[in-house]
Every structure is written in C-alpha cells, then in structure tokens.
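R.M. (postdoc): so does anyone remember the format we settled on? I'll just put the structure tokens first.
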C-alpha cells in the first residue's frame, strides 16, 4: 500500500442512519425483498439473488431486467436451470456477453442440485465452493438472504467509502481499509445494510455527483468537508514508454510523394504511410530506403494509447523512382483524400507538405 498509512481509528459508518434512509428510499428491483417485507420476515430467494448478481457483473440494472425475467420464466428455480441443456442457457444469455459466466452459471446450478440437493446454500463459506462464485458474490448472497454479517463491497460501495474516509490513495491500494470499514459497521440487518450502501452509491453518492445534503452519512463523512468528487483518487496511469524511428518523405521529379499501405495487421493496419523504419525502444541510425541526398527536418512526436513515438523526419528526391514498386505517387494537392493517419500527416507537415 504505497505512501498510505491506514487511519488508526477510521470513521465508523453510521449503520442506523443508512438503514433508516434505506427504509424510506430503497430502490425497487425485481429480485429485491423491500425492507418492509423483510421486516415481516420475508426472506430473499438465494437463487434469484445469485442470478441477478451474476448478470449484473456484465451490465447495468436496466439492461439486466429483461434477461432476468426471461430466465425466471424459463427456469423458475435452480433445479430447473440445472436440468436445462447448456445450449439453451447460452442462447438465452446471448447479448449479455462473457459466455464463460453462462457456463459457470449452469455448472453452479448443477452443483447446487448434486451437492446441496437443490437447496441453494446461503452461508458464504459454502457459496465460495461453487463454480463462478467469488468473494463478492458469496458475501452478497449470504448477507442479503441470511443476514450473514459480512462486508459486501462492490464498485458503488468502494466510492461511498473512499469519500466517507476522504481516502488519500486509489481504492485499489486500500482495499483492506475499505472492506474493514464496512465490516466494522455491519449491523444485524446485514442484508439491508449491504443494499443500503449499494443504493447510496447508485443514487446519492454517484460517480459524477454527490448529493451530500440528502445523504444519511453526511455527519461522519470526511469527503463532504472537502470536495467529495476528488474521491476516489484516480490511480496514476503507468507512464507510456517511448519508441523511436525514422520516417522518409520521398518525392519524384514532379514533386509527387511516395506513399504505401501499411501491413494488414497491427497498429494503423491498412492505413496509408510514408516509408518508415521499425519503431523500437532505442534510437538507431537511419536506414534510408533509397540512395538520395537526404535532408533532415527534425523530429515529430505522436502519442498513441500505449506508447509515445518520436520520429526523425527525412526527405529526398528520388533519382530512380521506378525502384519504388510497392506504393504509389500522390499529388501533394490531393493528400486530403489519402487514408493518412495523423502521425503521418505530422511527418508530411514537418517536411513542409500538408
Ligand atoms: S456525504 Fe456526500 S460524499 Fe459523503 S457519503 Fe454522502 S453523498 Fe457521499
């Protein structure tokens, strides 16, 4: 955990306040047992919670709704899903993506039938033994269906806690602090508390907006006393490496420019280029593509997603243009019609063209 000492006495999340807010403002979700019904003893169905959690790993609540309803209509319980052919499950899953999850879903249903007699387990330790169920999903099912006092930390909860603590480092560097902060607050109503934090993150303490005046956690929140939108602190992106190369602008006696098509695979595939060297991690001497009087025009810099490129730009007039066979000669006035990526437009500009 670089440059970060966890607070000795981190602020405690006020679970009572969160629950009181949840009792009034819980979102209505197809798989959710509302807090009033939960208080009357209605338990959430672990099959439904599991199904929704697995689907939500791929996409938003809005997009999941239709898939969830369709799955429940076709396979209303875990035994029905286990008995379905995997091909049928994959067909219904189509559009949700990540087909390994659909296969794990089916394998998990089969395991619940074979190992637990079709009774979906609700203890996190047992859930963790099932295919496709990791620590987050196990905690969510255990808390929501059986009030197991475990911390349930999804992306929304990460954000709420990062703001609540005014966490000075990215969440990924303080996962334990976030989890322990939630764990320390989990009350007897563990399931409702988990869902309260999720709902707070989805509605009040949202990614681009924090409605602190409406938030039940405001009295203890450190983030609201500064600027909540500073948190979570963004991870520093890895520095881009630099690659080096040479680009060669060749003209014929008429002033036309020699261009060619880049390879069919890789960066800028099938785009148009001037001849260029390999782009490598150390500076190398130019290997001119034709014998000519080469003139150096300095250097251009172009930043790609994964690296920064420094190209030395050279130009020359070819004495034997017929020797260049792979490309074509372009009129400088018509370069706008060429599929030249911006890095090669920079090259041409450096050579006094474009
Ligand atoms: S007070 Fe504001 S920043 Fe703090 S948890 Fe609530 S909405 Fe988020």
């Amino acid at each position: 955990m670089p440059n970060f000492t966890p607070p000795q006495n981190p602020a405690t999340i006020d679970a009572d306040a969160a629950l009181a807010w949840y009792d009034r403002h819980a979102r209505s979700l197809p798989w959710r047992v509302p807090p009033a019904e939960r208080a009357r003893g209605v338990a959430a169905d672990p099959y439904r919670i599991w199904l929704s959690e697995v689907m939500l790993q791929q996409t938003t609540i809005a997009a999941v709704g239709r898939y969830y309803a369709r799955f429940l209509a076709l396979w209303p319980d875990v035994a029905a899903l286990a008995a379905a052919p995997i091909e049928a499950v994959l067909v219904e899953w189509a559009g949700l993506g990540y087909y390994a999850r659909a296969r794990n879903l089916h394998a998990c249903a089969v395991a619940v039938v074979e190992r637990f007699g079709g009774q979906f387990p609700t203890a996190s330790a047992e859930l963790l033994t099932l295919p496709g169920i990791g620590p987050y999903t196990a905690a969510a099912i255990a808390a929501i269906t059986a009030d197991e006092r475990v911390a349930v930390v999804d992306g929304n909860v990460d954000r709420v806690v990062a703001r609540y603590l005014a966490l000075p480092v990215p969440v990924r560097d303080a996962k334990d602090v976030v989890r322990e902060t939630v764990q320390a607050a989990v009350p007897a109503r563990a399931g409702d508390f988990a869902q309260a934090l999720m709902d707070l993150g989805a509605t009040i303490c949202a990614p681009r907006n924090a409605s602190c005046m409406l938030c039940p956690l405001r009295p203890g929140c450190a983030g609201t006393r500064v600027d909540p939108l500073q948190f979570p602190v963004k991870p520093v992106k890895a520095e881009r490496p630099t690659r080096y190369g040479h680009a060669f602008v060749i003209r014929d006696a008429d002033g036309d420019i020699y261009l060619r098509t880049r390879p069919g695979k890789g960066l800028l595939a099938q785009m148009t280029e001037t001849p260029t060297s390999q782009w490598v991690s150390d500076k190398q001497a130019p290997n001119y593509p034709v014998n000519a009087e080469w003139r150096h025009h300095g250097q251009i810099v172009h930043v790609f997603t994964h690296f920064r490129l420094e190209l030395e730009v050279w130009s020359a007039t070819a004495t034997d243009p017929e020797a260049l066979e792979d490309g074509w000669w372009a009129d400088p006035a018509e370069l706008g019609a060429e599929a030249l990526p911006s890095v090669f437009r920079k090259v041409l500009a450096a050579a006094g063209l474009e």
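R.M.: ...and that's the designed sequence above, right after the tokens. Also worth knowing: The radius of gyration is 30 Å. The longest strand covers residues 242-251.
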